[in-house]
Structures are given as structure tokens and as C-alpha cells.
Records
---
Amino acid sequence: MHNVFEALNERGFVKQTTNAEQVAHLLSEGQVTYYVGFDATATSLHVGSLVPIMAMAHLQRAGHKPIAIIGGGTTMIGDPTDKTEMRPMLSQEQIATNGNGILAQLQRYLNLGNGIADLNNSQTTSEVGGFLNNADWLLSVNYLEFLRDIGKHFRVNEMIRAEGYRQRLERELGLSFLEFNYQLLQAYDYLCLFQKYGCRLQLGGDDQWGNILAGVDLVRRVEGERVHAVTFPLLTTASGAKMGKTAGGAVWLDAERTSPYEFYQYWINTDDRDVSRFLAYFTFFPMDEVRRLGSLEDEAIREAKEVLAYEVTQLAHGKTEADKAQTASRAAFGGGNLDDAAIPTSAIASERLETGIPIMELFHEVGLANSRSEARRLVQQGGAYINEIQYRAIDTVVDTNLLEADALLLRAGKKRYRRITIKENQL
RNA sequence: GGGGGUAUGCUAGAGCGGUCAAAUAGGGCAGACUGUAAAUCUGUUGGCUAUGCCUACGGUGGUUCGAAUCCAUCUGCCCCCA
């Protein structure tokens, strides 16, 4: 086994470790079971989760065994690190549903075994990996036992020294007892995973460092064993924005929420300064290649962006979708024709077009504007195009005269396209 | 348990009882310039059947010709004391 830890480090995945040498040693000695926790608040992960996912994938490729857990139990509490708001409490069914969606996405990158998608019955992991819900062990926890067996290992004065909590306290934000306990539960997860599956390495975002360390300590105190932790740097784009956020909200891995085309576009629009980092994180290219692409400058860097976008899209959605997205993208921005483009399409009843649809209404209806007023502004400001012809009159009515090959190509601003097809009269 | 403070649009944050759909900044969107980048400049940024109408300034109820602005009460959050 070559040294995966070095590889991860080189790619920028490592922010903090319990002890770099020991972690490297551990990973070079034999198969290591490692785990990462994922948020189960939605049915889909978004691109922010790609960092842990890719790190897990690198480790699995090196022969180690991944366990992904979703926080069915911890979601019911709310993580204090998420300072802005308490996470919504979700029902167990909801979490299970979300979990299934998330598992499907993880499986594109990892082999988590099979037969464990059923979260009601997830207490097993296969040879290659596993997917667990921490509700399995947290829900049955007895408060008094928990205090006695787990709680006694935590020192409050130590806990409040942790950055996350300290900030909360110093900035006078307040911290509920409920939130305060989050750390114990997360630590308990690690202990359970160590006991049942021999898990010896936990990975997570750097904001989780305190919680993860608590788990490391707990295992040492209860079992007298040394387990490890590695955190990832928290990604922001060069312009300071949170990774994976765009105007339309988060960039999801689910094709239903974020189409492969939009997904591709997100990566194409990467800030120049981020290209090389992102190639290291989000593709499997050897570092030599990453460095080569990352060193491109000025216009040539678009080549690197295209490679990045294609690769990431292919990983998330498969080759077919990636090809389609790339073709569509090239056509839309390279001047080619758009006929076979994978541009989001909406259908409109033919009779409505015969009557004529006010342009504002059309743009609003297909989702290129959030309201008619917004559509009106779009038109007035010269951002509305139909078949690449700009329309600035708000009283424009779209009817069958504008059809080209039985379709309309709408464009809002420079980048957002929507194809309109005709739907025959409804039955 | 007692006392005090605060609650505004996506966010932060102004706001004399009328001229407040609400200053300003950030963010978003559009335009110009570009490389589908960044930076910069300009415009715009609640909704609608649109020179007017509706909904909004934590909830409810009052005072008033008129309230985001005053009063009462409820709720949330914060601070001090216990």
C-alpha cells in the first residue's frame, strides 16, 4: 500500500490531524476502517460534501474501509457549530428517506457494500464498507446510563475551552444545554463505531475538530485505545463565498435538483484562482496533471476549467450526462447550434401560444424569473432573449410566429437558457 | 424568581406619528467591459390585472384622521441580579 496519507495531504485535504506521523503510519500498516458523518437534512448532498466524499474515495482506493453515517440521532438535536440557526428536527422516516437518497449518491463514489440501504436494519457493514444511521444506537440510549458511562469522562471546563463553544459564550450568543450535549453524542458515535467495527479514523470538516477530538478522547478513556482524526479545510471560493452556493441556492448532487447542465456550468464558472485547488480536490487526476492544468494562465485556463467541469460532472452524473452537458455548454457559448443541447426544457400547451403569451408571463412561468415583476425588470433591462433576439418591450406577446422548429429558446441574461417545446392540447 | 434591553426587507443595519415599500452596506439580478473568470462602472432589487392597488417592519389588541414609529399584552432572543 502506498502512502495515501501523503497523497491526501498533497491534494490539500488535510487541515488538522491528531498526529500526522501516527495517522500516516496507521494507514500504511493495513486496512483501516474510517468514518465520516453526513448531514441528513435533505434528500441530497451538495457540492460542499464532495470534499469528504473524495477523501473517502481516495482512502478506499488505497484499500481502506469506509463507513458513512448519517445523523439520524444527532439531527434531532442541532449542531451548535451551525450558529445561525438550529437545524430543523426531522422525523425518523424523513431521515431514513433522506438517507436513502444520500446513500445512492455516495455509491457513485464509494463502494459501501450492499443490502444496507435499509436503514431500519443497518447494523451490519460489509467487507468493503458500510452506511449507518446513528439513530440505531442513539435512540436507545438511557439517560442515566449515558451520564454514568459517558458523561463522567467529560470535563465541562475542557469543553467550554473548545473554540466553537467559546465563541458562543464570548460573543454572548448563549448556548442551550441541548446544543452543549451535541459533542457528547458525536463522541459517543465514535466510541460505538470503534467498539462494533474497529473504526480508528474519523474525518470531517475542520469546524468539527472539537467534536471529533472529543470522540478520540472518549475512546482513549473508555477503551484505552488510540484512535485518530483528520479534518478537511473548510472550502470557500476565492471570492469568499461559501462553496456550492449560487444564486439559485445550493448546487446539489441530485440531478433532479440541479441538472447536470447547471452542475457543469457551476464548475465552468469557477474563479481562476480556485481552479488548481479544485482539480486536486474534486478529480482523481494525478497531481502532475493537476499542476499542469493549474498553471495555465489567462484564456488558456478555460481549458482547465472545462476539464474540471467535465470530470466532476462525470463523477457525479456519469459519462453520458457529462458529454451532454459539455456539448450543450460548448454550443451555447461557442456559437454552435443548440439543437441537441441538454438545456432545461419546459413544455407549453400549443393553444396558449396560439392565443399569445405576454413575455413576462412566459419567463416567469418557465422559471427564468421568480415573479412577473422580476421578469418585467429582466425585459426592461435588456436581459430577455427569444431565439437569441433581444426583446425590450414589456408588451411583447409571444405567439406561434416566433416558433423555430416548433420550439423557442429563451435566454435570461448571459447564461441561463430554457428551451420551450410545444405540448399538444391536453387530453 | 427579580430587573433591564431588543425584535425591521436575502443578510447586516438606519428609521422625526404622516412626504416609508422603508436610508446605507453586502448579496442577488441586468447592462457595459471581458475569457461562460476576476476587478471596475451603470441600472435594478416585495407582489400585482401597475402612474394605481395589495401585502409587509415578531404575534395580538389599542390610542390616532393617520403607526415601522405611541400604549398594553404575548412570544423569542440578549444582559444584569438570584
---
Amino acid sequence: MNDSDTNKNTFAVTTPLYYVNDLPHIGSAYTTMVADVVARFERMRGKSVLLITGTDEHGQKIQRTAEAAGRSPQEHCDRIAAGFEALWQKLNIQYDRFSRTTSPRHEAIVKQFFQKVWDSGDIYLGQQKGWYCVSCEEFKEERDLLEQHRCPLHPNREVEWRDEQNYFFRLSKYQSQLETLYQNQPNFIQPETRRNEVLNFVSLGLQDFSISRVNLDWGFPIPVDPSHTIYVWFDALLAYITALLDPDSEPTLENALSKWWPINLHLIGKDILRFHAVYWPAMLMSAGLPLPGGVFGHGFLTKNGQKMSKTLGNTIDPIELSDRYGADAIRYYFLKEIEFGQDGDFNETRFVNIVNADLANDLGNLLNRTLGMVKRYCKGHVPNCSAEDIPTDHPLKAIGLTLGSRVAQAYESLAFGEAAIAIFTLIRASNKLIDEQAPWALYKQGQQQAVEQVLYSVLESVRLSAYLLSPIIPNISSEIYQQLGFSTNFNDQTQINDSASFTMNTAWGALPADQTLGEPKPVFVRLELS
RNA sequence: GGUUCUGUAGCUCAGAGGUAGAGCGUCCGUCUCAUAAGCGGGUAGUCGUGGGUUCGAGCCCCACCAGAACUACCA
């Protein structure tokens, strides 16, 4: 993320606009969960946040898929887009904009943006020449072909020589500007390994790329030549800008860019890195616009160590998964257990083990056992002791005092696993403290004050942990807060969206003495392997 | 072929040149406040292989082996 963003109080983050070729897969769900966690964290610390997601709906593939299903392209897109929105509900994603490339407002933005690039002289009519595989619908490089000009994927067919007119974008012109960008803003592309790929790619020399297609209807016409259709990518990237429009404002570039631009962070899968890290900034340079804060290309997911594919039949259905296990468990596993940036594996046994160990055994049970004791030994109220009475070297306070800033730092650098690990250090220390201090024994010995100090410090540690985990597991955190006697609901943006509340809640000792506690009830029921 | 990344306990991963770490799993012990949860302890690693630099190397250099990504218009 960009350092210069810290003095702005807005934060815009995007997921890819998912291609509506099919219903959402687990990879899309993963990116979107991450985006939601980032958005929730930034909201919590008081920023105005815009979480943008949506669907990319143009292109030949869509047209064909729709035809094959006996529907019009728009009908098809509507159905799939609805499927995405339904999944985001299940996963408790709080998106602010759902941007669809087929919307009329988008067309207006595309036209205006095209005009800017056109005025810069960066679009020209050229010849797209090359070997074309009809089965792939794709131009092939000579060196990739087999003998007798046969496509490696369709060796029984010869490729055809095509020579058609296309509009091109002058990408080559931006080579050195892009290289300067990568140099001056090392975080523009993350993680490091993705950055290296792009640097290598760009250093080989950039060629102009075509931004129009002929013989294709499903898309917007090129404004200066309606016989051509705008290439899907050129149109899709611009939908990030369209998404910035307020719902009731005129669809002009000026309006779209007025509040939220530049976008702080684009979260993407590694498969679409080049479009975001090379084409997109070049397009923006051509249009004379400021550039986004950065692009993060995460890895792919495997299942039991194997690539997922429809033909292998080993895909994970995110809808079924969330129906079976619930949003928080899934969010926790993907955020905590998968190193963000690297490829990650989903293994159901491992998933159940981790989630049970952390959320049920360590965290949930900690709250439950403590509330039980408070009920018995302190009449169901937060013990009447203030945090100042607890020494700074107290095992929980010592961790709690710096936890907030360490976790915030981790979230900021998108190191979600690190954030969770830090929080669980406090949770485990709390379980340990209870065993060491044995409040039940202290109580029998009549050491009421000692009992209260132990229980207060544990409840406060649970509170702090729940607060810091709330971007990842908002439902569980809300439940914990309610059992601690607060009315906080972390899904309600109006309750948590200010920086004063962030400062207060991340401080150790925010739990008010004497607060009436709720009824102890498991906040996370252990999962069974089905 | 070229470029880059990865290879550390059964699993997932941390590891600033100076006596190998965490979580999960597994085994043993143990408290009783609790969601058959908690806590303690044990278990397990030729740190991919072979060289080199260094008083000393998972950590630096070279080679090799294995896996992965990128190498332009598929979203």
C-alpha cells in the first residue's frame, strides 16, 4: 500500500470484476474475503472505505456460453451476477459497489476514457497479423506452433493466416515510465515474486496491444468506429472507475474520480497480474490520471495438494462450503492458515482441526470458562478492578499493551496470518494464567481480590482479541462482545467506524469495571468432519 | 531454452552468520472454572544434494536435484 494514503481519510479497495463465464469458484471467494477483511479493518480505524467488487460481462466467451445455455447474453449475465451477490451474502462480505460492465453508466465512462486516450494519440488503427487457431480463438506465436503450422492444443487442425484491422493501444510508449514507476514505488506490485515477473516481462520490451475486435457484438463499440468492439480487458479495467460513481450522480469521469480516486489497492489473483500491473497503469498514464496505490497478486488454491479443475472434478464449491461450515470458520481458515501471496492448500481435516483448536478450544472456551467463574465468584459482573491496578509486567497486560499496534501493522501489510498468530499468543497466555492462578482455589482461600484480578485480566484479553479479530470473524467477535456486556455488533458499520473508538478499543483496559455480563454460551461450536 | 521463486519436525510454516523454532497432529501426565475444552511434558529435523567462503552457515557463493511461476493480446 501507498504511504501517501495515510493522510487521506478514504480507502478504496477492489476485488477483480469476476468473469461471468460460470458461477463463482473458491478462488473468487478467497480474494473477496481478503478484500472484505481489509475493508473492515480500515473502516474500524475510522477511514471512509469503498469496497468494490463486481462482474466482467463482455466478450465472445460469454456470448457463446449464453447461446449454449439458450439464453441471451444479458440474461446469462444477470443470472451469474446474482449468483455472485448471493455468495457474498453467505460469506458476510460488506461490499459497497457491485460494478457490472454491461451497465449503461459504465458505457458512458468507457467512452470518455477512450476519448482521453484517443486525444493523447495513443490509439491507432493497425494490422493484427498472425497465425490464428480457430478452435482456440486466438493468435499464436510462430515459435509456439508444431510442424506444418499446427496448434499444440488442436494438432489435428492447421492454423490460419489472418490479417485483420484492429485498433491498438500504444503500450510501447510507456515502457520507461512504467519502469520508473516500479522503481520509485517498489510496493506497487506485491508480493516480491510477482513484482519480479513483471519487471522481467517489461524489460523484454513492450509491444502495443489491440483493444478492439471485429466480428463480435457482445461489448461496446469503439466510439470512433462502431464496426469494431472494444476488447474486454480495456473495458473491464475501467469498470473500477465506474464503480466510484455515487449511485445518483451523473456518469462522468470527473464525478467518478472526484472522491475516491486513486484506488488504494487492487487485490487480484496472479493470473491477471499483467493486466493490472502493466496495461492498467499505462492506460491511466495515457489518460493523464494518478495511479493506484498498488496491486497485490495472491496465489492459487489447491485441494489436498492438487490443482482444482472441473475435469478432475475436485473443485470446492464455495456455496456448499459456507452452508456447511458458516462464514467465520471459512474466513478464519483462509486468512490465517494460508500465507497471503503464496499458493495455499485446502484440506478439510486440517481445516476442521485448525478452526476447532483456535476458535472453539482456545478462544471460545476461554471466554466460556471465564464467564462461568465470574458468574460464580463475582456475581456475573466484570470484577471491580481497574487496569491501572494491574502491574505492567502482568503476563497478559504485558502482551496486551503492544498487541494493538502490532496487529494493526500486520493488517496494514496484509500479513493476516501474522495478525492472528500475535492475537492467539495472548489467548493462550490467558488460558495458561488461569491454570497457574487457579481462581477456584483462590476463591476457596477467600482471596477475592486475587480472583478478581485474574478474571478481569482474562476477560479484558478476550475482549481485545475479539476486537482485533473482528475483521476476520465478525460474527464471533460480536457474540463475544455481547457476552461481555457490550451491545457492539461488528457487522454494523455505524457502530465501529471511527478512529477514536479504534484507539479506545485497542488499548488494554477498555473493559469497564462492574459491567453486567451476558449469559455464557459457546460462541463457536466445534465442527464435525462430515 | 531464458528469467524468477521455493525446498527446515507427520502437516502448515517462522527463522537478524554464533548451541535448530511455533501452531496443528500424535503419545504420556495433570488441574476441574470450561465447548470430552485447559495446562505441563515427551515425540520427531542428515535445515533438498555436493562443494566453497568463514573461527563459525538453514542463513553468503557455486554447481546439481526436485517442485512452481513468468516468457504478450484466454477474464
